[in-house]
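Summary for the steering committee. One of the milestones for this cycle was to obtain a three-dimensional model of the protein with OOB bound, which we needed before selecting residues for the alanine scan. The sequence and ligand used are listed below.
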Amino acid sequence: MSAHHGVRGGGAHSHGGHNDGVHAHGGHNDGVHAHGAHSHGAHTPWPPDVAARYRAAGHWRGQTFGALLTSLAAAYADRTAVVGGDVRRPDTRWTFAELDERAHRIAAGLADSGLAPGDRVVLQLPNIPEFLPVVFGMWRAGVLPVFALPAHRHSELRHFAAHSEAAAIITVGEHERHDHAATAHAVAAEVDSVRQVLVVGSDEFDDLAATAPRELADPDPEGVAFLQLSGGSTGLPKLIPRTHDDYLYSVRESARICGLRPDSVYLATLPVSHNYPLSSPGVLGALHAGAATVMAPRPDADTAFRLIEAERVTITGVVPPLAAAWVQAAARTDRDLSSLEVLLVGGAKCGRELAERIGPALGCRLQQVFGMAEGLVCYTRLDDPEEIVLGTQGRPISPDDEIRVVDPDTGADVAPGETGALLTRGPYTIRGYYRADEHNATAFTPDGFYRTGDLVRRTPGGQLEVVGRAKEQINRGGEKVAAEEVENHLMAHQGVLDAAVVAVPDPYLGERTCAYVVPAAGASPTGPELRKFVRERGVAAFKVPDLVEVVEQFPVTGVGKTSKRELRAALAALARKQ
Ligand code: OOB
């Protein structure tokens, strides 16, 4: 927010009115951005021959999200696109034509506010209808959203803004008892690149959204459209550059695989900035099919069941703990859930027992989904036999998704049906994180496979069964916690000499976090004190350790590294005793 070269359409931003990172259409994507030295490592493109293959196969069609909305508005003009509300407009219903027009106005308003094609903007919006015109407005202006979650706080937002050198932050005011605008302003004051904070729901934003629409140069469909966040395993979340072409392919196929039709109604239950409710099939898949999206302000069964009944919702997606809560709540609800046809469950492993209860309890079909913001998404198919739907996490979207299951130590392919580490590459899986050359060297194989960190088994039919994880990440009911990120926060405490964060099995969330802490000499930090300390450092609540165990020292491995395996074993032994 401090002094900054806010020149629009000038200097490094100007490309003859074209997008930054642009290359000739049909040419290969060199991924080079127009921001000089800063752009290094911004986007690792697919090799030219591979990209040519994806184009020839019809996966990449050279369409941007802005152009998609234009064609959807023509095809479905008066049909409902999105339903929902916020404090200012509690009962919003926009048709495709209205959404299209509002996105045009917001695009022009953003351009007038000084944002230029290629600029990154941290976007933090809850599940409100305005999410859609804002995101499509950004896409039309060539501005790249960095999709923060509503749960993120100062520490994460500052990291996203600084790492992406964001030009702005777009957020809401007060939401769920947190003043998002205040946090955004605090981050803007600390990160030089951030020139403005736009608060959706404010008078200023309504003025911006009233700007006269005008034609803006359509960005490059093979250029980066936005940055998603990785769950991460080392330090702070990595940024994931996705292109219009690659993402649109996954959206189009997801909509088809999940059976979306123009008369479907998709309930956005989870926070829509996340890859799963955004694109698997998510709000974008629903739009693509000409279907309506209902924005659920909260994911609890009462809220969701009320909306399912009122809007005749046909499909939604949840994480396993939520599915379990809905199954329980369904037994004593008066709501009419008969419109619901499909419940997607993913983000974390859906156990067999839960899988078996979903259909009978909710009167719908279960569809398992195993995906990642980096790309690969697997679904069980709606016509798969029950055994596959209940017992596997499905098979990849694309015939061109390449899957390898390897021995984590040797890297050699395991025998068919054996457990190993999952590697993947394909037409919508990234080849590198944004500005992360060092991390990319280990997160990807030299020939471009992404190391997912998941341990899987492959069935003869090509389905994957997720059996575990090799990465230092805790999957807290679908919310990902990087052990190292929390360890770093704990180690910032004076009384902490060392910290190790591991997963503890949890009957409801699947896993919770336990922080093992070795106190500094003479210090005796307590669990509540450390939890409060981490919370006050401004992190998402789901990252605050659920348990804290103060120990004298950590078990170490042969080479002297902290043995998380032994810590987990100690925890399991503790749990057995209780
Ligand atoms: C989804 O995306 P992310 O990026 O938050 O997390 C990806 C990781 C996977 O690598 C895996 O560890 C875990 O989440 N995961 C699952 C799973 N779905 C995701 N583990 C076991 N079973 C499943 N069904 O979580 C995501 C993105 C798109 C669609 C669905 C989920």
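Key point for the committee: The radius of gyration is 23 Å.
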